[in-house]
Amino acid sequence: MTVQSSATSMRPVSSGGASLKAGFADPVFDAQAVFRASLLATAYPGRVVPFDRALAPPRPFSSATAALCLTLMDFETLAWLDRQAASDEAVAWLRYHCGLPVTDDPMKARFAVVTDALSMPRLVEFHPGDVEYPDRSMTLIIQVSSFTDGPTTTWTGPGIKTTAHVSIGGLPFWFWSDWELNRELYPRGIDVIFTNGNALVGLPRTIAVET
Amino acid sequence: MSAGTTTIHSDTGYNFAYLDEQTKRMIRRSLLKALSIPGYQVPFGGREMPLAYGWGTGGIQVTASVIGPDDRLKVIDQGADDTTNAVSIRRFFQTVTDVTVTESTEDATIIQTRHRIPEIPLKEGQVLVYQVPQPEPLQKIEPRETETRKMHAYAEYGAMRVTLYEDVAHFGRIAKTYDYPAVINGRHLMSPSPIPKFDNPKMEMNPAIQLFGAGREKRIYAVPPYTSVRSLDFDDHPFEVQTWKGCCALCGSTVSYLDEVITDDKGSRMFVCSDTDFCNTRQAKAAAQPKTAGEQS
């Protein structure tokens, strides 16, 4: 297994605001390690999957959010950023390192990055895929304040042996009722990866959540 | 892992794991969507590989997108580590990744397989990569993809049940013995690749991650861990796996999938385990133990 737990490794922001921060120290192996973490997070929903690749993220991204962007996004993936995530620094960083095209329309995007979860759009505003192509749907990356402090929810579904108890903090009050509506679209639907610090929690569309 | 180990692979003419990074990202995105919709075939931009179609190009691309320098790779072909397809794919990854290879199912982190699931139960975190020649279970019933796509979209699987029932009408039983269709997560009909139906029950609630790659047909699909995999059957003709009268001639196993081997031209034959690692491990254990009379496995 390439994913190991490690202490927090967010490096302090040292450079001035104008300069562009670096991407992965090693683009090939760092992307592989972060992908492996996201594969585990999607395969075993509800588990906190840490990884040991640190990078200096652009504000307001956490290390995990930035790493996930570098790993999954490129010129082929139209992306939507929430108001906070669309900071000049983050947009310039994504454009440079991922060649990322950015859109204002969440319905058109393949990926979305949310750093201010409390003011994010409702889940129905993102593309759930087509009936014949349910894979052409939104992958939502939500940067949350905590994986432990939130209200405890009970997750069941593929990838979870019995049940998983997950406490994601900093989500809007309507999130889990919207998630129930998202599940009704199956096999269409959006998929979520929560990020915090240097760790991920996956929430694919198959997962039923009880609050 | 320090940053200074970028070029550990022995052939520096290629990127690590042969594929370029953009291709890996595209396949990785497909893999995540495949896990999110268990059993649904995600189209992907399959690349030309330095092997002919039919030799596992889909599985190789999936493995190449998942594998890292710390992995231990096992490659099997019909259960065996030492057959042509397994040897050439293992050598390919040794050349382009320099990862550790193993024949032990328990030690491996990634197992690429053609047409078998190892006998030893898999563990959490292990990745099983299947090579798939024809990902569409409905293809023999409806060759047009425009139609099969609709059949999957609306879970319209009656035609497949009729096909199985025709077997019952003709032969008194379901005659399909490999590539036996299964419904994943109660929704999508999936081809498990040409594994014997003996292996179908192993896919259900398996702790490992099961990924399927079809290179010629350019499809990726997946069965996440702990997922329901129901082989199609009828109440009065329940799903059954193959059984054998004897045991493995080499290790004495009565629980594994056995291959029939013809030993001369006078009709002599023997049955041996198709999973060579399983068989060798059992033989080594038996040899290490002091002999007891009438030992049964």
What order do the helices and strands come in, and which of them pair?
The complex is a heterodimer of chains A (211) and B (297).
Chain A: H1 27-43, E1 49-50, H2 63-72, E2 79-81, H3 88-98, E3 102-103, E4 111-114, E5 139-143, E6 153-156, E7 164-166, H4 175-184, E8 191-196, E9 199-203, E10 208-210
Parallel strand pairs in A: 2-3, 2-4, 4-5, 5-8
Antiparallel strand pairs in A: 1-9, 6-7, 6-10, 8-9
Chain B: H1 21-36, E1 42-43, H2 57-66, E2 72-77, H3 84-96, E3 100-101, E4 110-114, E5 127-131, H4 145-153, H5 158-171, E6 182-184, E7 188-190, H6 200-203, E8 209-214, E9 219-223, E10 229-231, E11 258-262, E12 269-273, H7 276-288
Parallel strand pairs in B: 2-3, 2-4, 4-5, 5-8
Antiparallel strand pairs in B: 1-9, 6-7, 6-10, 8-9, 11-12
Helix pairs in contact in B: 1-2
List keywords for this structure.
heterodimer, A: 211 residues, alpha/beta, Rossmann fold, seven-stranded mixed β-sheet, three-stranded antiparallel β-sheet, 23% helix, globular, disordered N terminus, B: 297 residues, 7 helices
